[in-house]
Amino acid sequence: MRITNVKITPIAIPDVPLANTKGVHPSVFLRAIIEVETDTGLTGLGEAYGAARTLKGLQTVAPTLEGLDPYNLRDLRQRVETALPEGGGVNAPTALADHKVVDVVYSAFEIALLDIRGKEIDRPLYDLLGGAVRKTIPFGGYLFYKFAKQDLTFGPDIMGEVMTPDALIEQAKEFSAKYGFKSWKLKGGVLHPDLEVETMLKLRETFPTHGLRIDPMGAWSPKTALKVIKDLGGVEGGVLEYLEDPCRGMDAMAELSAQTDMPLATNLVVVEFDEIIEAVKKDAVQIVLSDHHYWRGATGAIHLGEMCRAANLGVSMHSNSHLGISLAAMCHVAAATPNLTYDCDTHYPWSAKEIIKGGRPTFQNGTLQVPEGPGLGVELDHEAVAQLHDLYNTAMVQDRDDTDEMLKYIPDYVRKVPRW
Ligand code: GKR
Ligand code: MG
Description:
The chain has 12 helices and 14 strands. Helix 6 links the parallel strand 9 and strand 10. D-glucarate binds next to loops. GO terms for molecular function: glucarate dehydratase activity.
C-alpha cells in the first residue's frame, strides 16, 4: 500500500473572545484538514493547526509523501525533516511557547497514516497504540473569562461577557447542565489574582466534589503563585488538583516548585522530549500535558506517557480550539495512555461547527466514548469542510495573534508576562 495523494484544506471556524494572559481569541480559529489517499482506495484523515507557518509546512511536505508506505513512520519523519530543513517554530511571536514545525507537521500526517492503517485492518486506532485501557474518556470543562463579542460577521457569541467571578460561576453552571463535566479548568492570568482566587473558591462552593485547576499561563511571579496556593487552601485539603504553568519559564517554575508541594503542570515549559530531562533535573514540574498535535503524533504521545511514568511525573491532556477529527484522535490517545489519570482539557464546547459526518459528538456526564469504527472512527463531511474553507477565504485571517486582537477590546493593552 502506498500514498498517492495528499490534500490540505485550510478552514476558519467562528470563535468567541476567550481571554488569556497574552490577549484574546480572534473572531475565527484556524485549522487544516488533511486527507491522505492510498493506491488501495483508503483515505486517512488528520486535523492540524491552520495558521500560516503550519499550513506552509503541511503544504511543503504534502507532495513529498507520494509513494510513502503508511506503515513506515520513520520514513515519514525523514521526509518531513528533508522537506523542512529550516525547521523553526509555528507560533505567533506573542505566543508563550513555540512548537517545531517538523514536530507539528509530522504529528498531523502521522494521525492520517494511523487512520489508514486502522481502516486497512478494520481496527480502531487505539489498537495501533497498544490497546485501550479505558473507552470512556473523561473531559473537564474549560472555563474562560471573556468579552462580549463585538463583531458578529462570522458567527454568534456564546454566553456574552464573563469578566467577574459570579459570571464565571454562571458559565460553569451552563456547561454543567449542558455537558455534565465533573471537573473544571479555569484559564487564569486575566483578572487580578485575588479575583481569580475568589472565582476558584466560588467554584469549590458551587461544585463541592469537582476537580479544579487554574492555568494563568506564566502570569504570576513565584511569590504571587505562593500566595495564590495559600489562599486556595494549600495542598492538603485545598481547592486545587494541580496548578498549571503559574510562572513563566523552566527556572521560575523550579523556583516555585522548591517552595511548595503543590503539583505543578505544564504545556509551556515542557513541549519537547529533551525538556522532560531538564524539568526532572530541576524538579520544575510534576505533571506534563500531552497533546498529539506536537508531541510527535499519537505514538509520540504514548512515548511521552511512558517517559513520564519512568520519571514519576503525572500526565494530563492539553487542548487548543479544535474540531471532531482532533477530538477523536484525543480520545484514542487518552484510551491508550495508561497513566493519563486526569480529565482531558477540551475547547470543544466553545464552537458550534463540525466537519465530521453525524455532527457534533455528545458529552455524557462530561465523558465521550472512544469512536469504535476503523482508524479514527470518523468520516469527513465534505460539504461542511467546503463551507469553512469559504470562510477561511473570506475572513482573511491567516494567523492567530491574541495580543493584537486584544487592542480591539482594550486599546491601550500591553502584553506583560508575568504581570503579577
Ligand atoms: O485557548 O486561549 C486559549 C488557551 O490559552 C490555549 O491557547 C492554550 O494553549 O489551553 C491552552 C493551555 O492550556 O495553555
Ligand atoms: Mg496550559
